[in-house]
Amino acid sequence: MAYNFSNFKDKVKEINNWLSGEFAGIRTGRATPAILDKIMVESYGSKMAISHVATVSTEDARSLRISPWDKSQIKEIEKAIASANLGVSASSDDAGVRVNFPELTSESRTALLKIAKQKLEDARISLRRERDEVWEDIQEKEKGGELSEDEKFRYKDELQRVVDEANKSLDEVYKRKEIEISGQ
Prior knowledge:
This protein is an alpha+beta fold and 184 residues long.
């Protein structure tokens, strides 16, 4: 009987996507609309994502333009960005909100790298947790007679190969973010 690693591989993809999403939210001095994805705006009595009440576009390397569909939302959007504490400045005019990204200092780059490393470690912890669950399942199947001892160790090797590939992928995602933060 062949062990099915597809659920584990799906979890690995989810972890990788989560890490990429977390890194997208880390400000690097360059204007990126992804930093606003998690900001919720009070709109007509409910909380909504900025992308649901406005168009977000990049004006230049250091600023974004948010054009709300309903101009009465401008102040709420500005307030939501200010309260999100992203380290950006927001100013409103009659057309919408401009979000300016200040130049990163060496201290802020160091702090952002520390945050990125913590996110990477969180992803690795999740990966280890998933690996441990699969390994326990393989051991239970061997104890139950569904797998031979040789198959158990062959699946352990295959599991480790998938984990090594996943760790390499997570490291590549981190390296790209590290270069982006460092401004190299």
